[in-house]
Specification:
Elements: H1 8-12, H2 17-20, E1 45-47, H3 57-61, E2 67-71, E3 84-89, H4 98-101, E4 108-110, E5 125-126
Antiparallel strand pairs: 1-4, 2-3, 3-5
The chain binds iron/sulfur cluster (SF4) (2 copies).
Length: 133
């Protein structure tokens, strides 16, 4: 005679998911809500254009070739003789911070903005300005 055992755990465990409905959510309702980032978080770059001297140190140190120096017409530092500012390719950047470390006037920094959703990949070629994108 063959006995079959009933898998009680297998029957009950799907219902345990109902209890999750009453728990406090672990995620936020983006974009209506955003999370605050931890101190020292490395988000998108910022660059104070009136301080940037266009020296290209940031481009030279970037091991990922994520920085191109691009000529702009906007108001710049009078000491910026090259007339260029860095443009970051976020398809290449690994947020290592080396470019920030070697910036002589400390105009370049990593900001707190870390979320950008775009359909066009060219939007990730980004000119850092005084505040993140
Ligand atoms: S953070 Fe690092 S990888 Fe990104 S642009 Fe600067 S040097 Fe390049
Ligand atoms: S951001 Fe800093 S390192 Fe890069 S070009 Fe400007 S001054 Fe030089």
């Amino acid at each position: 005679m063959k006995f079959t055992t009933i898998d009680i755990k297998g029957i009950i465990s799907p219902f345990s998911a109902i209890g999750k409905v009453l728990e406090h959510p672990k995620t936020v309702c983006y974009p209506a809500q955003t999370k605050t980032v931890a101190p020292g978080y490395r988000g998108f770059h910022t660059n104070i254009l009136t301080d940037c001297i266009g020296c290209a140190n940031c481009q030279d140190v970037c091991m990922n070739d994520a920085i191109d120096m691009i000529t702009i017409q906007e108001e710049k530092n009078p000491k910026n003789k090259s007339g260029c500012i860095p443009r970051i390719d976020y398809g290449r950047c690994c947020w290592c911070n080396l470019c920030v470390d070697v910036c002589p006037p400390n105009s370049l920094a990593l900001g707190e903005v870390c979320i950008q959703a775009e359909m066009d990949s060219n939007k990730f070629l980004f000119f850092p300005k005084d505040s993140s994108c």
